[in-house]
């Protein structure tokens, strides 16, 4: 046992066993208290059951399990999302994709989120723009179940469909298509490090060169975009040049990349060419 009965919250916080932020989140979760209570109840001594519960969660984190999976939730774009081992954990850098999408989505616009996972991108867009018609696709039934619960949780309307990329929307057209597809190349060392070890491989890697899913989206999107409609995709830290080249080869207009808060080119996109534009 990591934590013995009778240990106070103050003592635990003075001698953190994990990253202090992770430990605070796990303590609050195990004890069912808020961050404020963690401070105001600093003299609280843990009971036998509480010490055992805290120790169990700390052990899981020490074994590498992501905090988001342990507590079953992660904040994204100011909203609380249910997550689990069947979906990718939403990350702050993906909020850039949402911001860019909202800037380009016309009134009552139709938006398609491909590979929705937890539904974070689709739900965030629908929450910020209730007028939008949001469709979200995923090949994983388990992911779609979590995404639907997240949409219900936030009271938004998203049309979820089980689909291998564009197959379920063969006749659909949209003003905007967004995606955070699997883009890590097979064999990349990051797949065996940190939280990625626990996340679904199919949401992380294409089991190829890291660009195959992006190629599929880029090649298929023009048939589903209105003239001038945007395609926006998240990708790896070193893939912006390759993604720009793929978009340009398919005659998208206005091809460009945008940087996240860390200064990394994180999202690349372009517009479906209008007649006479190329």
UniProtKB/TrEMBL annotation:
InterPro entries xref list: DNA_methylase_N6_adenine_CS (IPR002052), HemK-like (IPR004556), N5-glutamine_MTase (IPR050320), PrmC_N (IPR040758), RF_methyltr_PrmC (IPR019874), SAM-dependent_MTases_sf (IPR029063), Small_mtfrase_dom (IPR007848)
Reaction(s) the record says it catalyses: L-glutaminyl-[peptide chain release factor] + S-adenosyl-L-methionine = N(5)-methyl-L-glutaminyl-[peptide chain release factor] + S-adenosyl-L-homocysteine + H(+)
A Pfam family this chain is assigned to: PrmC_N
Gene that encodes the chain: hemK
Gene Ontology molecular-function annotations: nucleic acid binding; peptide chain release factor N(5)-glutamine methyltransferase activity
Designated name of the protein: Release factor glutamine methyltransferase
Domain Methyltransferase small: 94-187
High-level lineage: Bacteria, Pseudomonadati, Pseudomonadota, Betaproteobacteria, Burkholderiales
Keyword terms: Methyltransferase, S-adenosyl-L-methionine, Transferase
Keyword Methyltransferase: yes
Domain annotation Release factor glutamine methyltransferase N-terminal: ranges: 21-72
Positions contributing to substrate binding: 180-183
Keyword S-adenosyl-L-methionine: yes
Family: Belongs to the protein N5-glutamine methyltransferase family. PrmC subfamily.
Enzyme Commission numbers on file: 2.1.1.297
Main function: Methylates the class 1 translation termination release factors RF1/PrfA and RF2/PrfB on the glutamine residue of the universally conserved GGQ motif.
NCBIfam families noted in UniProt: hemK_fam (TIGR00536), RF_mod_PrmC (TIGR03534)
PANTHER family in UniProt: HEMK METHYLTRANSFERASE (PTHR18895), MTRF1L RELEASE FACTOR GLUTAMINE METHYLTRANSFERASE (PTHR18895:SF74)
Domain of life of the organism encoding this protein: Bacteria
Binding site for S-adenosyl-L-methionine: 115-119, 138, 165, 180
GO biological process, one term: methylation
């Amino acid at each position: 046992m990591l934590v013995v009965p009778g240990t106070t919250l103050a003592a635990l916080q003075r001698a953190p066993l994990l990253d202090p932020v992770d430990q605070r989140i796990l303590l609050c979760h195990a004890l069912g208290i808020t961050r404020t209570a963690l401070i105001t109840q600093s003299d609280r001594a843990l009971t036998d059951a509480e010490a055992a519960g805290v120790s169990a969660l700390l052990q899981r984190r020490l074994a590498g399990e992501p905090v988001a999976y342990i507590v079953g939730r992660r904040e994204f774009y100011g909203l609380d999302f249910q997550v689990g081992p069947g979906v990718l954990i939403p990350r702050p850098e993906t909020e850039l994709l949402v911001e860019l999408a909202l800037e380009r989505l016309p009134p009552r616009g139709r938006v398609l989120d491909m590979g929705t996972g937890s539904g974070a991108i689709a739900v965030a867009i629908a929450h910020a723009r209730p007028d939008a018609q949001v469709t979200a696709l995923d090949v994983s039934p388990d992911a779609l179940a979590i995404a639907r619960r997240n949409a219900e949780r936030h009271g938004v309307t998203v049309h979820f469909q089980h689909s291998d990329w564009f197959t379920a929307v063969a006749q659909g057209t949209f003003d905007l298509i967004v995606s955070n597809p699997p883009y890590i190349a097979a064999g990349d060392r990051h797949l065996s490090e940190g939280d990625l070890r626990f996340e679904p491989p199919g949401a992380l890697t294409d089991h190829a060169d890291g660009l195959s899913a992006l190629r599929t989206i880029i090649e298929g999107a023009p048939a589903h975009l209105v003239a001038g409609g945007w395609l926006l995709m998240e990708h790896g830290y070193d893939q912006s040049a390759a993604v720009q080249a793929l978009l340009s080869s398919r005659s998208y207009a206005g091809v460009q990349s945008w940087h996240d808060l860390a200064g990394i080119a994180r999202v690349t996109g372009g517009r479906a060419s209008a007649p006479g534009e190329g």
